[in-house]
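can u do me a favor
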């Protein structure tokens, strides 16, 4: 028999009754019922119940071991009997009567329970991540991630894409976030940058003639954490294609995403095809460029209705209305609750009206509406008895943010929200440029390597703020999975686009010399995208926080509490790297492990 196991803990069944077996795993749980010990033994593959009879050496050995001790046991598979079957376990028809025990790895008292999802805080969990990963939910999430990545590789390869690796040590690039810098030992005072994305390299692969590229690419950005963003590093399904237009990219990614979410979505429906929504339309209808389409409600711009109104709260402001049907049975607390929610989003309040059976209006602002206002709103919003209308007024961006959140919350509270579904969409026609409100400068609003719609002519003849780009985002259930674009592959267009954003030709040649040089030697039209692996798994696992799908994430302060990163280095190493530390700089408070 094998030194450690003849079977795994998850594979024994009723057909194995009478078989002598050897198992190894972690002591998951223990119950003493009148001297008879029942042990749950766990390994990667599952859970099996052991039984140790009173007076046996096995009973004596197992009774003193702490949970999470690693043991090897020998025993015989026996039937539990019909009355004792556990239908929730694949091994629930049998148990193993233990005859011999060997401790393979002793365990100290564990700092939190493994066999239950108790309320231990995240810092504690990350400090002992190796224990946290033993929990069933976390183990399942990490395996899901593995399976999703395997499926991605299979699907991309089947579609004719080639998996190619790009450099980790490269030059710094203005991609929109801070680089992580790596000092060079051989070149004093110079630094490598870890890639924010393989953007330039994958474009160079297209110019080199590889046609269809993909990579499960590690990316590094020195940015703050959010629920859907892990600080430090993340992975993406990086894709680039030659001789394509926007729709060609969409067709490939829609196929891959639909198949992935159908395969791993546990029966949740995937809506297809994915609608294409222009950026400006998304901001007006949904208040967001990453709309959650599970909410069936839409916002409507009614600013013109109140343009000359005497109602000062709305007059001269951008006004967005949200019509919610079938609220005739909703109590006053429904309206007050949404008002409080709007305040939590930054609003001063939430104006509303309700349409009664005879078409009469009620609510805090009903008395301020003229007959013309009511007529216009009724036509614009399709109002009927039982409807309520919520209003937000102010600056466009502020109203979009607040009313976008109210739209989703109102849909959930009013029964207008789809559950158990993945609702994808493409956001298209992003503006190429935007104005920095603080400096007044024209800046790139998205990827600087994108092709403007209309090409060089648009750059030379149109107001920069009116130029659209061949840029797109893919969104699922209100989560942006990725941005992408049809790339600019023409040097003249590149020079002009960067000139509008305040870069000289010399700046472009210095920052993007390799890319620019490549464009001058025959570059094909190309485009791509890079859906985030972490966010995809987060959606599939139905987890609210992206760190629940990553084996060893940094915490919200970009610290690795298990391994102690970032850490200090000694003076000899600093000297070797031609670095010195400014002793006058403020030092962050060191993390102190919980007891």
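np, heres the sequence
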């Amino acid at each position: 028999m094998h030194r450690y196991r003849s079977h795994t803990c998850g594979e024994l069944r009723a057909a194995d009754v009478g078989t002598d077996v050897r198992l190894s795993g972690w002591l998951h749980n223990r119950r003493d019922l009148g001297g008879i010990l029942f042990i749950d033994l766990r390994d990667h593959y599952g859970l099996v119940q052991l039984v140790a009879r009173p007076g046996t050496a096995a009973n004596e050995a197992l009774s003193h071991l702490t949970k999470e001790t690693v043991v090897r046991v020998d025993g015989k598979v026996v039937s539990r009997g019909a009355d004792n079957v556990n239908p929730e376990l694949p091994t629930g028809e049998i148990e193993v009567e233990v005859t011999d025990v060997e401790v393979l790895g002793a365990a100290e008292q564990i700092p939190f329970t493994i066999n239950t999802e108790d309320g231990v805080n995240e810092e504690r969990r990350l400090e002992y991540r190796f224990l946290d990963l033993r929990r069933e939910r976390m183990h399942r999430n990490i395996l899901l991630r593995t399976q999703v990545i395997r499926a991605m590789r299979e699907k991309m390869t089947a579609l004719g894409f080639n998996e190619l690796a790009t450099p980790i040590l490269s030059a710094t690039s203005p991609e929109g976030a801070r680089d992580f810098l790596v000092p060079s030992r051989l070149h004093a005072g110079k630094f490598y940058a870890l890639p924010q994305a393989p953007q330039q390299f994958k474009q160079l692969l297209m110019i080199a003639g590889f046609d269809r590229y993909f990579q499960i690419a590690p990316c590094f950005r020195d940015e703050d954490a959010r629920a859907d963003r892990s600080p430090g590093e993340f992975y993406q399904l990086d894709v680039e294609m030659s001789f394509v237009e926007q729709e060609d990219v969409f067709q490939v990614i829609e196929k891959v995403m639909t198949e992935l979410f159908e395969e791993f979505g546990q029966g949740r429906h995937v809506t297809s095809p994915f609608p294409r929504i222009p950026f400006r339309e998304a901001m007006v209808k949904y208040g967001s460029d990453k709309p959650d389409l599970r909410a069936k409600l839409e916002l409507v711009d009614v600013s013109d209705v109140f343009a000359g109104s005497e109602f000062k709260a709305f007059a001269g402001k951008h006004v967005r209305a949200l019509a919610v049907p079938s609220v005739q049975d909703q109590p006053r607390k429904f309206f007050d609750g949404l008002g409080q929610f709007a305040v939590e989003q930054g609003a001063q309040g939430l104006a509303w009206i309700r349409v009664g059976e005879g078409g009469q209006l009620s609510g805090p602002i009903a008395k301020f509406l003229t007959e013309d206002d009511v007529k216009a709103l009724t036509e614009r919003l399709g109002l009927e008895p039982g409807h309520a209308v919520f209003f937000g007024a102010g600056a466009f961006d502020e109203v979009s943010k607040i009313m976008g959140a109210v739209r989703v919350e109102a849909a959930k509270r009013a029964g207008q929200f789809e559950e158990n579904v993945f609702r994808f969409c493409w956001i298209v026609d992003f503006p190429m440029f935007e104005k920095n409100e603080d400096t007044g400068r024209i800046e790139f609003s998205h990827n600087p390597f994108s092709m403007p719609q209309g090409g060089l002519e648009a750059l030379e003849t149109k107001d920069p703020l009116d130029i659209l780009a061949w840029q797109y985002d893919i969104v699922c259930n209100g989560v942006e999975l990725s941005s992408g674009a049809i790339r600019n592959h023409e040097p003249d267009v590149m020079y002009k686009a960067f000139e509008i954003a305040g870069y000289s030709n010399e700046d472009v040649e210095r920052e993007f010399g390799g890319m620019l040089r490549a464009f001058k030697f025959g570059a094909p039209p190309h485009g791509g995208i890079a859906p985030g692996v972490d966010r995809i798994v987060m959606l599939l696992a139905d987890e609210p926080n992206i760190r629940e799908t990553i084996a060893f994430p940094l915490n919200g302060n970009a610290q690795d509490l298990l391994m102690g990163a970032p850490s200090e280095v000694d003076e000899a190493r600093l000297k070797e790297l031609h670095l010195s530390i400014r002793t006058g700089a403020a030092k962050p408070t060191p993390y102190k492990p919980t007891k």
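The two ends are 43 Å apart (CA to CA). hope that helps!!
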